[in-house]
Amino acid sequence: MTDPGRGFEPATGDGVEAPSGRREAELRTAYEGLLQIRRLVNGPAGAAVPAPWEVRQLPRAVALVLEAAGIPPSALDAEGRRTRTGYRVAASGSGPAAGAGHVEVTWVGPPGGGAAEEEQERLTACAAVLEELGWVCLLYRGPRRRRFLEVEPPR
Length: 155
Prior knowledge:
Structural class: alpha+beta
Number of domains: 1
Helix content: 25-40%
C-alpha cells in the first residue's frame, strides 16, 4: 500500500495480501511514472532500459514491473505463513552472482499448493516481461532443485 513518506510500495511477495480497489490505480500511476522517468533520463534508449534509480532499488523496481504486468505476487498472513502462490522478489543472497547487483525472483506458495510444479513456466513468463523492459534474466536451479530467476541490469 502507499506509505505517505515513501510512496507506492510494489508487492514483493513477502507482505500481507493488499486489498484491491485503490491499489490498481496507484500501481498504474507508479508504472507509468517508471516509464516516464526512463524516457526522460535514458536519452536515446528511452523506456527500453532501466533508469539509474531502478538499478539502485532493484527489488522494488523488479516487483513493480511484475505486479504491473498482472503476475500475482505471493502473500503472507499475519503469522508469516504463505497464503497465496506467486512471485517473490528478494535481494540476491545465493546463486552465482550473490550480492553483485542482482535480485532473485522465485515462485512460492503455501505448502502443498503446487508452486514447484508450475515454477518453470511462471518464472519464464516473469523473465519475458522483465526482458522486454531491458532487464537481463537467467533461470537457475538452486537448492532442492527449485528454480529461481536471477535478474540484473544490462551492462
